[in-house]
Amino acid sequence: MEALSLRDDVSDKSALAGQNTLQLIAFSIGEQTYGVEITTVREIRAWNGATPLPNTREFVRGVINLRGTIVPIFDLRARFGDGQTSPTKNHVVVVMSVGDKWVGILVDAVSDILTVSKDDIHNVPEGNSIDTELLNGIVTHESRMVGLIDLHAVVSGAKMDG
Amino acid sequence: MSDLDDFKATYFDECSELLTELEEQFAAIEEGERGADRLNAVFRAIHSIKGGAGAFGFSALVGFAHAYETLLDYVRDGRVELTDDVVNLCIRANDIVADHVNAAQSGEDLPADYGAEEKSRFDALARGETASEDDDMGGEMVEEFDIDFTPVMVNLDGGGSGFAAGEAPVEDVFEAAPMEAADGQWEIRFTPHRALYARANDPLLLFRELAALGTMQVRAILSDVPPLSDFEPFAVYCAWEITLVAPGLGEEAIREVFEFVDGDCDIVIAQAGIVPGAGLDLGDFDAAPAPTEPQEPDLSSLLALTEEEVASPARPAEPLPSFAPDLPAEPVGAQDKFEEAPALSFADLAAEIPPPAPKIEATPVAAAAAKPASSEGEEGGGRSVGVQSIRVDLDKVDRVVNMVGELVITQSMLTQQMDETLRARYTELVRGLEVLAQTTRGLQDSVMAIRAQPVKSVFSRMPRLARELATKTNKKIKLETIGENTEIDKTVIEQLSDPLTHMIRNSADHGIESPEKRLAAGKPETGTIRLSAEQAGGNILIIVEDDGAGINREKVLQLARNKGIVAADITPTDEQIDQLIFAPGFSTAEAVSDISGRGVGMDVVLSNIKKIGGSVHVRSWTGKGCRMTLRLPLTLAVLDVMLVKVGGGPYVVPLSSIVETMQCSRASFERVPSGGRVLQVRGEYVQVIDLGQRFGLSTQTAPDDQFVVLCETEGNQKVALVVDDIIGQQQVVIKSLEENFERVEGIAGGTILGDGNVALIVDVQGLRTTHLHQNAA
């Protein structure tokens, strides 16, 4: 459908990528660019609504049906404490695997596939606690700063009282 | 290696089935059904377990099973009487076999003397009764016939294999004189049949095993080996003679080596001291000039043999009067018994003899001749007589179940799309859809039936538990099971074992009183735990009931208060107190016993049962007993639901819990002092839960346009859910939320609607209990 599979054309590129490099899928939320390692991404699909889950935090947008499996959707903007996204058809859900679970992350747009060197990854500067909590590191790519998302941290603490 | 592991896994699967079968058989035997077929079933089960164990080298298991089997064998042919004592010993032995199997499966080692006491009792029983008869093959062949008749050792290879005249044709002896080894020199003649090789047995391995028993000499008998040009690739031409010197060794031990090729070869074992010459002129068994035709035994000689058998003065007259005269008599020699009778051809020939055919069929001789040929079926595939079955990976079945579930949903979606105009225009389409609906129903039922299994598989493990508990607690406990053929989904059954174990433990430990107390209370000394299963609508009820003391409510309440499970200012009803035993960390046992009392039991019951969509209810009568009811869904895959709307989102409520629905404008709500609402239904006040409020959803629906869904939860407790709209009924496939997310309070799972959207399943029972917690807090 609207899902666009990246897996196939990506494999050639990963072959080219050396051991010391990392391929990222970059996506944007407002002006900010974030990235996740490409191997964790299962598919990218357009936002098509989600069934809200009761008793969960605001960044849990609900669940969607991914070919018969129920997958929760996390609003990354809300996760960073920036208020809920008002999604349109142009918003994108990046479905990825975290451990043995599949989760979807709602972002504004997917921008690029980046190949970065592992040496270029910097620690997140101390300061903003949400950033340090949710990011694994920061990498600069063509003068853009890309935050590496820590998926485990993003999906944790979804319950109201948890 | 992994292949072997596969075989092992299959073996353990089979073992658990066989052990279940053993429990069943003995349950019947205990009831007094002591027919031969029961014993045979038991014997077969033990034999199969032993056989596999031997193949995998579980020697402890083999040893025990063998002793057990020997006893069973004697019981079977009446040499040991099946007294209650023997039955009890056997039941205990089943437990030990089960322990051995478990130990083998988990790779643990049982103490070396585990079961030694029982084993020695087997031996004592077997010895005591049969000191002079020490051969278990005889029994194996006689068992099925009450008629006095001497079993015949037959040679599948045809008459010629190694027993040419003049050699040492020694007949196997069934009622031989005591054969205690004098000088320990044994002569063994081993004539393998084609089947032995076909089953991938290797004589070399047998010889090695024999060699381990003592000093051994093997001579191959090659006299039957034809010229190379006549060689048939699969024929067996070679036999062996073995001289084994092993002082103090019994014939039994030698037989044991050949245990697994039993029936696939001829074994003649004789003691050199007793057998002068080449085994001629033996006291009870005769060396007769065997049929000299090397390959095809002819009819006449066979029939002659039969006549010998019939006319034998040593035997009581056998029911063959009209048979004998028809036979062309051709005496072979003065002998009490004949020996080499090729089984297959004999059976064929016997059936072909024209006039007295029916009688022949009925004769033990024909039956005996046919038996070795089918002995494999007797031992291993005895079950094939009944239902034929195949083993299928559960995953595969589940895939089908899931797809059928999706199909059902698609079908109901299609049906929903048909509005009146469409119906009028496309009558063919409508008819097609109706047929589709029927077929899908049928398909669904059939698929569900594949997964359904009788609860027997779980129930049958419980008698053993009850026995052990009775011993440990020094109480007298009788376990009754009812409705064990009730069928439930396999997944449900798997989840049942733990809860049932805990419940029965609880009943035995806390419910049933000691014999003295029971007598003092005017109850029978033996306490009864009744385990029953029945189907009630879309649910299965599993009930564990005991006639013990019931729940000590005062103590429960006090403990619950001490542990902070119940706030001090709340006075729960009796029924609520009873339910407290399922609270986590709760235990009323004054002393922690090793059976129960650690406070982990009953909440495991609750969580296990909840996990499979069931519920638990307990009811107690002080001094009279206690009843715990598990209500389980018939199937886990498809759920009949009512689709409702709350705060704009779709939710489904399991139809099984819905009592009725009504419009809010017609419902009579009342305010209670705390500010909450209750609903008055036919004089009953029911707790109201506004789902929108509870789920934190905003609703635009005016209160009067809302609906009330009256649901019944466990213990006939009702709860009224307020929803925005009722959309309709449909079937849904349950999907787990936890698979990719986590458990959400008040939600039992998700499901996918016909339009592809996800709807959430309301956990009615869960809503009610969280409500209680919130009140208590």
UniProtKB/TrEMBL annotation, chain A:
Task: Quote the Gene3D superfamilies the UniProt record gives.
Answer: CheA-289, Domain 4, SH3 Domains
Q: Name one Pfam family in it.
A: CheW
Superkingdom field: Bacteria
UniProt-listed InterPro entries: CheW (IPR039315), CheW-like_dom_sf (IPR036061), CheW-lke_dom (IPR002545)
PANTHER family registered for this protein in UniProt: CHEMOTAXIS PROTEIN CHEW, CHEMOTAXIS SENSOR HISTIDINE KINASE-RELATED
As recorded in UniProt, coiled-coil segments are none
An example GO biological process term is: signal transduction
All copies of domain CheW-like, residue ranges: 21-160
- What is the protein's given name? Purine-binding chemotaxis protein CheW
Automatic annotation (TrEMBL), chain B:
Reading the lineage from the top rank, the first entry is: Bacteria
Every Histidine kinase domain range: 425-636
User: What keywords appear on the UniProt entry?
Assistant: ATP-binding, Chemotaxis, Kinase, Nucleotide-binding, Phosphoprotein, Transferase, Two-component regulatory system
**Looking at its record, which EC class is this enzyme?**
transferase
PROSITE patterns hit by this protein:
CHEW, HIS_KIN, HPT
Q: Which reaction does it catalyse?
A: ATP + protein L-histidine = ADP + protein N-phospho-L-histidine
One GO term of the biological process aspect: chemotaxis
Q: Which residues carry this modification: Phosphohistidine?
A: 47
Q: Write the Enzyme Commission number(s) for this entry.
A: 2.7.13.3
Q: Name one Pfam family in it.
A: Hpt
GO cellular component terms, semicolon-separated = cytoplasm
Q: Which residues form the CheW-like domain?
A: 638-773
Listed GO MF terms: ATP binding; phosphorelay sensor kinase activity
Q: Where is the HPt domain?
A: 1-104
Q: What function does this protein fulfil?
A: Involved in the transmission of sensory signals from the chemoreceptors to the flagellar motors. CheA is autophosphorylated; it can transfer its phosphate group to either CheB or CheY.
Q: What is this protein called?
A: Chemotaxis protein CheA
* Native source organism of the sequence: Devosia sediminis
Q: What phylogenetic lineage does the species belong to?
A: Bacteria, Pseudomonadati, Pseudomonadota, Alphaproteobacteria, Hyphomicrobiales
